[in-house]
Amino acid sequence: MVAQHCVQHLIDFIDGSPSPWHAVASIESVLKAVQFVQLDESAKWQLHAGGRYYVIRDDSSIVLFVLGNKVPTESGFKIVGAHTDSPGLRIRPNGATSSDGFARLGVEIYGGPILATFADRDLSVAGRISFNSNEQILHKLVRFDQPLLRLPNLAIHMNRGVNEDGLKFHKQNELPLLWGQLAESQLPQPYWRELLENAAGVEFNQLASWDLAIFDTQKGAFWGANNEFYADSQIDNLASCHAGLRALLDEDVMQHAESTLVCAFFDHEEIGSESHIGAAGSFLTDVLQRISIALLLDREDTARALARSFLISTDMAHAYHPNFPSAYDADHRVFINKGPVIKSNANRRYSSESVSSAHFMRWCEEAEVPYQRYTHRSDLPCGSTIGPIASANLGVRSVDVGCPMWAMHSIRESAGVQDHEYLIKVLKQFFLN
Ligand code: CO
C-alpha cells in the first residue's frame, strides 16, 4: 500500500507537470509548503544553520538544498541529480499555418521521442510565454487543459505496409498537428496568438514569444492484475525527480542529515545538457560554491567539501521486455519491480564505477532494497544521463542508477509500482549515511 500511495503521488505530480517549466513550478509549490526559502542568484545569500533553500534558473532547472548538521568540509554535499525534460514535440515560432482550411501547428522534434506514439493521442499544449507589460518583458506559464490538437494516423487502407514496416512519419512534412478548421477570412497566426493570449490571461497583442511543448492530456493510471505497473507520460525522468524530492523532504532525513543535502534537477538532458541551465552548464557548481561562500569557507575548504561529496545521478533504466528477448545483454537483464538498477558503461556513458557502485550497493543493503546491474548490448549505441557530465563538472564521484521501465521515450511509458518506493528508500539511506 505504501508503494501504491507513493506512485499515486507521483502520477499526480506528473499530471500536474505537463512541461519542464510546469515541473519546476510543481516542485516549487511543494517546497514552499515545507518552508523552503527561494534564493535569488542576483542577490547576496545569507544562509542559516539547518536552513532549507532552493534556486531556480530560467524556470525549468532547480537546485534545492538543506544545510546539514555538520559543515561541508567535514561531511560534504550529498547530491541527487535528475532531469526535468522529456523528449517530444515543440511548437515553432511561426508554427501556426493553414492548409486546405485546416489550422496546423508546425513542430520541431525535441530530443529522441518515439514519434509514432504521438499519433491518435489527445494532445495539448503547455509551456511558458513571454509578453510585454508596461515597458517590461514578463513571462508566465500557460497550459491548455482540453485536447487542443492531434496527429491523426493515415488509415491502413492508404498505408498497407504499416504493420510490417512500422509506423513512420516524415519529420518535416507529416508531423504538423491539426488544431482547427478555419473560416474563410481567418488567418492562422493571429488566431493562434489570440488563443494563447486568452489561455495565458495576457492582454491582446502583448504576446512576444514562447517555449511550448506538446503533452498528452490522458492522466496516469495503474495497470496489471494487481495494479503492479503504472503508465504515464514523462516517467523518464519526472519519476526520478519525484523520488529525489520525496527522499530529501522526509522530516527525519532533513533533521538528522550531517551532510548538506542537495537535489539538482536540470532541463535539457534530452538534448545533451549543453546550456546555461543544463547539467553541462555552471548552475550546480555555482550553487555549491555560493553555499560555501555564504558559510565563509575559503577555496581550499570548498575543494575539501567537494572531495567528500557524492552524486547519485538518477534516471530511468531499460527493463527486460519478454516480447523482445534479443534486445538485451543476456547477463544484464533487469526486471520491473526487482529494484533500482546500477547502470554501467565501459565508455562512461554512465558515471558508475566500481567504488561508487559498491557504495550504492551498501546503501541498498542497509535500506533492505534489492538492486540490479545493467549494461547495454555492445552492438547498440548506449544512451547517457546527466551523471558523467555533472560529475565531470564538479569533480565529484558519481553513480548512475534508476528504476527499470518499458517504452522509454514513448508518450505513454510504463514502470513498476514497487520500484519507485525502493528508490525513495535507498535515496533516504544515502542522504542519512
Ligand atoms: Co532520462
Summarize the structure.
This protein is α/β, with parallel strands linked by helices. Helices cover 30% and strands 27% of the residues. The chain has a nine-stranded mixed beta sheet, with helices on both faces. Strands 11-12-20-19-15 form a five-stranded mixed beta sheet. A three-stranded antiparallel beta sheet has the order 5-6-9.
Chemical compounds bound to the protein:
cobalt (II) ion
Number of domains: 2
Number of helical elements: 12
Q: Please tell me what the overall shape is.
A: globular
CATH superfamily of the largest domain, called what? Answer: Zn peptidases
Q: Terminal Cα separation, in Å?
A: 26 Å
Q: For the report, how would you describe the main beta sheet?
A: 9 strands, mixed
What's the level 1 CATH class of the largest domain? Alpha Beta
Could you characterize the architecture of this molecule?
The chain has 433 residues and is α/β, with parallel strands linked by helices. It has two domains: 2-86 and 233-432, Aminopeptidase; 88-216, Aminopeptidase i, Domain 2. Helix content is 30%, strand content 27%. The strands form four sheets. Strands 1-2-3-13-4-14-18-16-17 form a nine-stranded mixed β-sheet, sandwiched between helices. A five-stranded mixed β-sheet has the order 11-12-20-19-15. Helix 1 (2-15) packs across helix 12, helix 6 (235-248) packs across helix 12 and helix 10 crosses helix 12 (417-432). The protein is globular and about 70 Å long. The chain starts with a helix and ends with a helix. 47% of the residues are buried. Bound molecules: cobalt (II) ion. Residues 83, 236-237, 315-316 line the site of cobalt (II) ion.
